Amino acid sequence: MSVSAAPQNGSAGDDPVGPHGGVGRPEPEPRALFIGGEWRGAASGATREVIDPSTGQVVTTVAEADVEDLDAAVAAARRAFDEGPWASMPGRERARILHRVADLIRRREDDLVATESVDVGKPVSLCRAVDVATVAEQYEYCSALAQGVDGATRRLPFPSHAYTVREPLGVVGAITPFNFPLILSSSKIAAALAAGNTVVHKPAEETPLSALLMAEILAEAGVPDGVLNVVTGAGTVIGEALLRHPGVDKVAFTGSTAVGRHAASVAGRMLKPVTMELGGNAANIVFEDADLESAIGAVIKGFVFNTGQFCMGGPRLLVHRSLYDTVLGILEGAVAGVPVGDPFDPATVVGPMTGERHLAKVEEYVRIAREEGGRVITGGARVHEETGGFYYAPTVIADLSNDARAVQEEIFGPVLTVQPFDTEDEAVALANSTPYGLASGLQTQNLTRAHRVAGRLKAGIVWVNDWAMLDPAIPFGGVKQSGYGREYGPEALEAYTKVKSVVIKLT
Ligand code: NAD
Question: Whole-prediction pTM value?
């Protein structure tokens, strides 16, 4: 069985692992902070090394901001919001600029692909077909949204003219994780800008490079100075300062549930609105009536995509007991055959993990799973250690009980646990049994069952007969400990605007 691990997306095509995925390994220049339309070093002069996950070597450095730099970025964003043209610009004009961003993303595709791949360890073929393609589409989609930031009229039972208007919130603080730097920052920035806000973006420590490249692209497209500011540095220093800053009107956070809980409580004390996109641990249910070949493809895609560093991945396979041994047998061969290697080889499907800390966490969970009685069907070890990169073999573990830590907790690596079930009720109960609720999925050819089970799964999104079908038009977000608020879709505008009511007395 051949495996392509790309989620479906409007422009991803059917075969992202094709001959056109290739791009050279870049040697990025040292990068500065982007504040008020200017590139500047950190006030302290500090820098941080950026590591290539496929070699473990330093590829460049970025400025390591301190609170003083963050203050300057918030002040620039505040000025741009209060005095600049962005918030008051007709939506159609903002739309034109955002559309130009999409065009420039496509023009600079090779740069973006190479930068994101060397920073995160993503295979170039996937990066081109999924990450960069999606980001261009996000800007196009949000360019359309920018033209519809309006309100409604209401009829009241007394002589009046009453209407609502949607207004931007002001300065948005965007805090993003290491695993999808381009997509997860653009989902915030494009929507926030469409609504007329200004932004201070703090990318993850480990993967800051594409955020800085995007700042360059937005400036070239005509986004005015101060509308987007990018500040690189430690979450515990400048992320924390962004949460607490009185000049920041809203925080859009994507990251782990543990940090998100802290971020929400800090922002909550200030009554600052937040969007919380947090961890996940989705189940993929394979019913006895599934198309088995397609189901296995969805299962493998669901847990190896992005080397399992995918909040919406499907690391828990629930399979009908009548298929349990058959599915384990197929997975043993198919998963062992997934090409793991250099992200700059166009044939690679699974690259390295993004850092040693992520690799060590996966190793620890596999050790725990073995202790908990898990049977490793394939994988279960580091690979390509001679490269110095952070590679782990895609791993399948059977025979764990539902309360095993490797089943209940978010491993965030290329590890699949497999559990049998007997009835639909049992499958739904197992799927809903973790604290998370970001995504869920089922494989069945019975349409009635598909709708029935989709309705019973506690998750922000449910996929049927595939995995990771995503598009900028589809709202994205979690329930339970996976967070609240939605990105993507027209719903994203709700996250970046406030509603004002105006009531005029008519005499
Ligand atoms: P993380 O929580 O460690 O870090 C996320 C961001 O928060 C980083 O920019 C970090 O610097 C910052 N941060 C850290 N401490 C902070 C503090 N005290 N105050 C403010 N900011 C702080 O997450 P990670 O390891 O980068 O990413 C992996 C996690 O993100 C996983 O749990 C994954 O499921 C989740 N995730 C969720 C989604 C989603 O859409 N729901 C998407 C991607 C990743």
Answer: 0.96
